Amino acid sequence: MQQLTLPAPAKLNLFLHILGRRVDGYHQLQTLFQFLDLSDEVTITTRDDGKLNLLTPFPGLADSDNLAIKAAKILQSATNSSLGADISIKKCLPMGGGVGGGSSNAATVLHGLNILWQTHLSDTKLAELGLKLGADIPVFIHGHAAWAEGVGEQLTPIELPETWFILVKPNCHISTAKIFQHQDLTRDSDPITVAAYLQRGARNDCEAIVRKQYPEVDKVFKLLNNLAPTRLTGTGACLFATFANRQSAEQALKQLPDDLQTFLARGCNQSMLHKHLQSRTNSI
Ligand SMILES: C[C@](O)(CO)[C@H](O)COP(=O)(O)OP(=O)(O)OC[C@H]1O[C@@H](n2ccc(N)nc2=O)[C@H](O)[C@@H]1O
Ligand SMILES: Nc1ncnc2c1ncn2[C@@H]1O[C@H](COP(=O)(O)OP(=O)(O)OP(=O)(O)O)[C@@H](O)[C@H]1O
Fold it and tell me: Which residue numbers delimit the GHMP kinase C-terminal domain (predicted)?
């Protein structure tokens, strides 16, 4: 029996443009992913009997629908592994928040089991398997801040300033599918280049609809935007305000009401999972 405990970090979409819609309903995007130093913690213990168990069930979510279990299953069948696993998740990331918690749990399980089961799949292969479960999983598999196109899986690594953020989770849960299906969503943004983004910034095409549909998000947006430039991540519900340094983020945090769910976080170009995996490799 072998055990590994690994982080499953959050991501932000620093901007999100929708360029079009494919025939299968998925949207063609341009987005910029950066990781945060906030994460869930996933502990995986191997089993000899091939069973896959979630030791920390989520209220209202069948274990078989949990992306961590789905990820384990897909790896097991792709590699014909006879081994199983007990998986526990210490959840810190807000669910349905647009920070990719479920996708990140899945990517961490894929990496963790690939080590424990000694299945030796490349990152490219793990990302391919992950993409079958969700568009956000490949960036968590590769673990580097990235300019993304396609449905979010065509990744070009990028170095970005590792600025500070206040992340706020308004008190609502937003379904990604519902926002992508909304009739008022604009799906005709022109493609932009990295250089144009770095010069002028860019918006999140889901933001207007989300603020209109969810007054809680709109209220938090106005509060935060008074303190620093603020944007929605993914399809929400989380909003993030950007600061040049920790001190100014801390100052701003003091001005927000106590009843808001807030997080102070730093942008990371390498994900905490990959920092962890690298330090493991270095110590072997
Ligand atoms: C909003 C983002 O988080 C931005 O990074 C992602 O695009 C969403 O990634 P995700 O949660 O992993 O998405 P999936 O689980 O693959 O899909 C959730 C829902 O969003 C829709 N979806 C997702 C990604 C995409 N490029 N176009 C879509 O229309 C899918 O049709 C599905 O109904
Ligand atoms: N391990 C998991 N952690 C969180 N949610 C999960 C998990 N597995 C499945 N889900 C389901 O996925 C939904 C969205 O979860 P998640 O926290 O990843 O949302 P998100 O941050 O909005 O994701 P994204 O930005 O990728 O759209 C949850 O409401 C839940 O029903």
Answer: 188-257
